[in-house]
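#struct-pred
JK: can someone run the complex with norvaline? inputs below
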Amino acid sequence: MQSKSATRHFLDISAIDAKTLRRIVDNAHAMKKAGKRVPAGLRPKGIEDCVLVMIFEKPSTRTRVSFDIAMRQLGGGALSLNHTDLQLGRGESVADTARVLSRYADAIMIRANAHDTLVELAKHASIPVVNGLTDKSHPCQVMADVMTFEEHSGPIKGRTVAWIGDGNNVAVSWMHAAARFGFTLRLACPSALHPEDEAMEWARREKAAITLTTDPEKAVKGADCVVTDTWVSMGQSDAAKRKKILAPYAVDQKLMSKAAKSAIFMHCLPAYRGHEVSSEVLEGPQSVIWDEAENRLHAQKAILAWCLGG
Ligand code: CP
Ligand code: NVA
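RT: done, structure tokens with the ligand placed:
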């Protein structure tokens, strides 16, 4: 069993140093090249005996399937559980769940309603804990996004990404990535839906190249990449209000035409055509969304290899 201090949790991009993150993305590219059977050099020692337990408090297609298959391709196993299948769903504490699962499994991935649940789990687990999305961030997604950017457009350092729409959990992980990977992030969000103050203050402290505007065209002008996400995230109830506020932030061909000629379009999916993005953009030649979805698998392998290789 790993000692507690050496436990490699993957909780947020902001919690990990730039060199380590760079290595994980490089390994993700290598994992993709290697194909289904990850070679010994990229696999953590003893992975054949390792099992990842996944806990879902919210639905998931990509995260659930890519983590499961990532573990299989690395040579280990995985178990996917909805929280209502666990005693967690009827009041067993997160701390006790963490201690019990640490006796069976080798890593835990959780998709949690509240970020505090993730933090509490990591505090009490003696095995690595991975953030599979919370209300505050979605770091594994953005690791795959950085990988996807580089696959299509070369090194991300010094480049410009425009985030259009809700200042949500995915936007916050993009902010963390801008600081750690050294690119410019221009956020265009309505003032009622800016990223949380905590993330903005963190970015200021880190001296990240992040700007915030309410004007999508200003953010997109000359950008190398345009990104958006759903207007209504899982667990949010004010759908009608959000759709109204976010209507001017829809990404369509007219907005894409303000970006660099070579700009790519990304979306973590699921996408809602005709809302945050037009079908024309989503299915158009600048869209790299299917590569982005595939790259969740390769990024997951690299993240797990880092967590389990400690
Ligand atoms: N992008 C993403 O995390 O997708 P799922 O909700 O399907 O896991
Ligand atoms: N912001 C979205 C991302 C889904 C992968 C949500 O939290 O629902």
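RT: quick notes.
The pocket of phosphoric acid mono(formamide)ester (ligand 1) is lined by residues 60-63, 133, 141, 268-269 (CB under 6 Å).
The chain has a mean pLDDT of 96.
JK: thanks, will look after standup
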